[in-house]
């Protein structure tokens, strides 16, 4: 869902002054129960998550190729102890075999009390073992046997060139399969997506899911505040589609070129659309903190997200 290099930007710290808050009832409703993504090496730089994130926040732990499972589990254990809903990635293409998958699940459960995960293909071009996609992970039955209560899967509002060179036929078929999987199992599921910058294609894609009979709720990926040039570079690397024009247009305005990007416009438009369409299937926001965890957490709080409880409260 996201390239290894993009998550390496998590420790970037924005220095420019923040824009005026956009808080409003509609935006507060959309930002309620937002989630955020971290990696073990960036989590290590956060002294106390409780000073940044509301208690109960769902925190995804990105598993990049080469990261030892011990580091993943240790991060999960820490976050769980701090009162967060921990959701580690299970990237199919870097999991060697069924025994490795079973070992990971057992470690997360036994050491960190994890009962949920994001299942995705992963960013590597060639599988390192017997799995190539998240459906194969689900078909093992190991998550059900272990009592995992929630499974999230990847979504791509603007397509995925690694899966479909043109169009979205394969991605759409995979989502239909996963939707059917939910109906025949006890798993509580949702779609967590790649980030995009324009609400219009996001809304169109979400509506197309409903038209196709896919009822999984959508947790829409949003890039947190970060330097504009950085976002353009890695949005291209990640295959972000038409919404990339939002950043390119901003880059042409010399008055905005040196200012950090903030997801103000896309959040506002999605929030207003949801307020006008209560059955809209985008239910949550999932942040990719490309400009730093602290920067993203502060932005969320300033713009309507639930304030974090102080660490000493």
Automatic annotation (TrEMBL):
Q: Which InterPro entries match?
A: FAD-linked_oxidoreductase-like
Task: Tell whether Oxidoreductase is among the UniProt keywords.
Answer: yes
Q: What's the superkingdom here?
A: Bacteria
Keywords assigned:
Oxidoreductase
For this chain, one GO molecular function annotation is: oxidoreductase activity
Record-given protein name: Methylenetetrahydrofolate reductase
Q: Mind giving the lineage of the organism this protein is from?
A: Bacteria, Pseudomonadati, Pseudomonadota, Alphaproteobacteria, Rhodobacterales
């Amino acid at each position: 869902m996201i390239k290894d290099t993009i998550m390496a930007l998590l420790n970037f710290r924005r220095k420019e002054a923040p824009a005026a808050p956009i808080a409003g009832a509609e935006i507060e409703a959309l930002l309620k129960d937002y989630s955020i993504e971290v990696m073990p090496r960036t989590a290590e730089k956060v002294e106390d998550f409780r000073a940044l994130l509301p208690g109960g926040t769902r925190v995804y732990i990105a598993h990049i190729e080469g990261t030892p499972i011990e580091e993943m589990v240790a991060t999960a254990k820490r976050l769980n102890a701090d009162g967060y809903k921990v959701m580690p990635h299970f990237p199919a293409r870097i999991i060697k075999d069924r025994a490795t998958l079973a070992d990971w699940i057992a470690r997360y459960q036994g050491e960190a009390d994890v009962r949920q995960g994001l299942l995705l293909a992963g960013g590597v071009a060639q599988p390192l073992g017997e799995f190539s996609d998240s459906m194969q992970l689900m078909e093992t039955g190991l998550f059900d046997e272990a009592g995992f209560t929630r499974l999230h899967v990847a979504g791509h509002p603007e397509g995925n060139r690694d899966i479909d060179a043109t169009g979205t036929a394969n991605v759409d078929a995979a989502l239909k399969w996963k939707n059917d999987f939910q109906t025949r199992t006890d798993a509580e599921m949702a779609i967590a997506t790649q980030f995009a910058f324009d609400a219009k294609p996001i809304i169109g894609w979400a509506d197309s899911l409903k038209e196709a009979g896919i009822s999984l709720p959508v947790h829409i990926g949003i890039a947190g505040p970060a330097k504009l040039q950085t976002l353009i570079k890695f949005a291209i690397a990640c295959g972000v589609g038409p919404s990339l024009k939002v950043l390119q247009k901003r880059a042409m305005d010399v008055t905005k070129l040196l200012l950090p990007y903030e997801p103000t416009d896309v959040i506002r438009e999605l929030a207003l659309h949801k307020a006008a369409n209560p059955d809209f299937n985008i239910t949550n926001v999932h942040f990719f903190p490309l400009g730093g965890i602290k920067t993203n957490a502060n932005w969320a709080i300033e713009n309507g997200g639930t304030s974090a409880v102080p660490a000493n409260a």
